[in-house]
Structure formats: C-alpha cells, structure tokens
Amino acid sequence: MTLTEKILARAAGKGSVKAGDNVWVKADILMTHDVCGPGTIGVFKREFGPEAKVWDRHKVVVIPDHYIFTADSKSNRNVDILRDFVREQNITYFYDVIDDPNGSWKFDPSKGPLQRQYGSQYAGVCHTALPQKGHTRPGEILFGTDSHTCMAGAYNEFATGIGNTDAGFVMGTGKLLLKVPETMHFRLEGQLQPGVMAKDIILHCIGEIGFDGATYRAMQFDGPAVKNLSMDDRTTIANMAIEAGGKNGIFECDDQTRAAVDARCRLNGTRQTYEPVERDRHESFVYELTVDLSKLEPTVACHPDPGRRQLARLMTQTQLDRAYVGSCTGGKTSDFLEFARVLRGKKVVIDTFGVPASPEIVHDLQTARWDGQTVWQILVDAGVQMTENAGCAACLGGPVDTFGRMNAPLKCISATNRNFPGRMGHRESQVFLASPATVAASALTGHITDPREYLS
Ligand code: SF4
C-alpha cells in the first residue's frame, strides 16, 4: 500500500485497502474557520438537532483567519458565531481574534491596516496554525473545511479539504465515507540551487501534470532530496496538491518531522502519541515522475491557471503593478527571510505587500536581526507594506477593504497558491504565482525577474 492507503486502511479498521475502495474512516481532527464554520454549524444543527453535541470537543479545532481584518459587519459576525458555538459546545481549541470569551469582534479601520488588532489567542492562517499549535501528527486523518487542508500532508498525515455538508456530518459522528484515491508518485532527487525554492518544485510538478492532473488522487512526495527540505518547504509543496486537483499530498515521516511534531505538541500540551506510516515495497502508483531538483530554475505559474508554467527568466516582458508575499503557502518565516535576502538594502518599485501567516511569524520577523536590524525593518525600509494583522488577507480577495486586495484590473506577482480569475480581488486582475525570492526580485524591477540576478 502507499502512504495514503496505509493511513486510510488503519482509520477504517481494515488490514488493507486499494484505490477505488469506499471506506468509512475515523477523523482525528476536524478544523473549520470563519468562512465555512457558520455553514458547517448550520448543517450540524439541522441534521443532528439544536441540542446536539459535537462528537469530540477536543478534536474540533476552530481557527478564524479569512475575513478578519475588515469592517464588513457580516464577516465580523462570523467570528462571533464561531465563539458562540465554541462556548455552547465547550470546544477546547479555539483561536479567537479577541480575548474576551463573551465579547464580540469588530475591526477598527481607524487604526489602519498595519497595526495589530488581535488578542493573545489568535493564531492566523489555519493551515499554518495547525502545526504551530500542535494539531498535526503523522499517521492521522485531518479534515478541514478548506481546500488547502492538504498542507498538513507534509507531516505524514492524510489531510484533505471537505465541504460544509461533509464537515457537519463529521462534526456529529467523527466519521466520513471516502473513496480511496489512486496515488501519484513524485520522487525528488538532487539539491536545490541558490535562488530556487520549494515553491518552484511544486510549480514544476503542477506544470508537468496540469491543474487537473491529480484530480481525486494522492500526490506522494519522497526520494533522497526530501531530507534536505525543511518542514516549511514540505508544507509549501503539500499545500499546492489541490492546485493540481489532488485529494491530498503526503510526505514520509523522518527525524525532522518527528522533532517538529514533538516540539509543537509538547509546547501546546496537545497529544504527543502518534503512529507514522512508512513506505513498503508493495506500492502501486498510477503515475511516476522523478524530479532532479538541481535542474530546476525559478518558475512562475501564469494567470489564470497554476499549471501554466514558465521560467521566470523568460518572462521579463511581463510588466507588473503589484507584488504580494503572504498566505499559508508563502507567508512563513522562511519565506519572508528569503524575500528579505533579495530585498535587503534595495527599494521596491511597485506596490509590495507583506502579510505574515501567523502572529508567531510576525514575532519571528520582528525579533530576527541581521547586522543589528530586524528583518521586519529591513522589509519596511525596502518599501514593503508589512502588516502585523496576520491572516489570509488578499490571498482570496475578501471584502473590498482587505489589505492588499486588488480592487482594479492590476497585474500581481504573488507567493500565494491560486491564480484563478478574481482570486485576489478584481475579476480582471491577473496573478502570477512564484516563490518569495522571485516575488522580491520582480518587486525590485517592476517586471517578472529571475531572483538569481540579485544573489551575491
Ligand atoms: S492563506 Fe489563502 S490559501 Fe491559505 S487558507 Fe487563507 S485563503 Fe486559503
């Protein structure tokens, strides 16, 4: 069995499963957020009754993150709906925007978009928060009401996005009927060259198979190169499995995985026991691709499709209006460090926005120092508009007052993960997906630029 099949077999209480089987699996975690949470709660109450209790109050994780820093009253209200439900159900893990459990959330636009407005429990983008808060463990099943839930596959778990109806059912029963996906195999060899990042790996892979090339399939990433990829790198790759239609993305568990998971579970007091799945010789793949990382170059996915791959160095004619670094895919500490490495001591020439994925990342950037200066200040000095209000922000457009949103038909190079029409705001805007290094180099020139030109 493949890694995915092994996890599904165990969660279904079966000795083995094969692609195409339909199995009932037990959920280890159900995550929901402010956009889909209210809908999921509605389904749960409708189907299980107004007095129903969630199947396990310790396994439902609620993370507001999407439409938070906006004056849109309906969006603010969604956070309050989550808070009311958490209180009613006595749910253990809720990363509220405010500290008062009986209060209500209201964004204050008079304070501007840059200064933090959240309380001490707020955790930022759900997929970044899940591992940071100790909710991702090898061998487990994570369902989330968000398509990029697949990001947690970096931690050797089966993680996938589900709709509100399925999530309402999981909320009530802790189970879900799943068809076992076929597995596609991506063997990673060689060493990434300077200026080339994990984002380039996944853009390369999606370019090979197309934006629907992995539809309802598992994407398994392994091979000798993985040991040199950080957990941040692996999450960038697993995150974008859905951009090829993948049901999930998954990596093996190694010492790095265990160290990260153990540290986070210990820190947050979450469960520290888990059982990883390992590869065996009896894996059956529907597709195989070997990628030599040493041959990859900075890559761009052209609007409007994550599979429209092109090399950055061949796109210098593409003029840009805007650059954006942020999101679960591209807003991690390591992403901002790479972004800053290229921008340091220089000035951007187009509007450039930086949105860290979580408060912890804000803290990292405001405390990490290079030659006595914080990385945050280096970015601000380079002309980047850095907000402390960590969250999804303009990655998915959001209400019109969302920080970094494209409210006009602009062209943006972005470290985010999706570039379908209207994704970051205006329906006629264009989004070019790239690594934080490529976004930085392009922000310096105003056109798509290979970051290797700026590496000393
Ligand atoms: S940062 Fe973007 S991709 Fe990630 S969860 Fe938020 S909206 Fe979705």
Total strand segments? 20
Rounded to the nearest angstrom, the distance between the terminal CA atoms is: 46 Å
What are the distinct ligands in this entry?
Answer: iron/sulfur cluster
Order of strands across the widest beta sheet?
4-3-2-5-6
General shape: globular
Helix content: 25-40%
Characterize the main sheet.
5 strands, parallel
CATH architecture name of the largest domain? 2-Layer Sandwich
CATH structural class of the largest domain: Alpha Beta
Give the C-alpha Rg.
21 Å
Number of domains: 3
Q: Strand share of the residues?
A: 15-25%
Write out the CATH superfamily name of the largest domain.
Aconitase, domain 3
**CATH fold node name of the largest domain:** Aconitase, domain 3
The helix-and-strand class reads alpha/beta
* Number of helices, counting only DSSP H or I runs of 4 residues or more: 13
Poorly predicted residue ranges: none
Report mean pLDDT, rounded to a whole number: 98
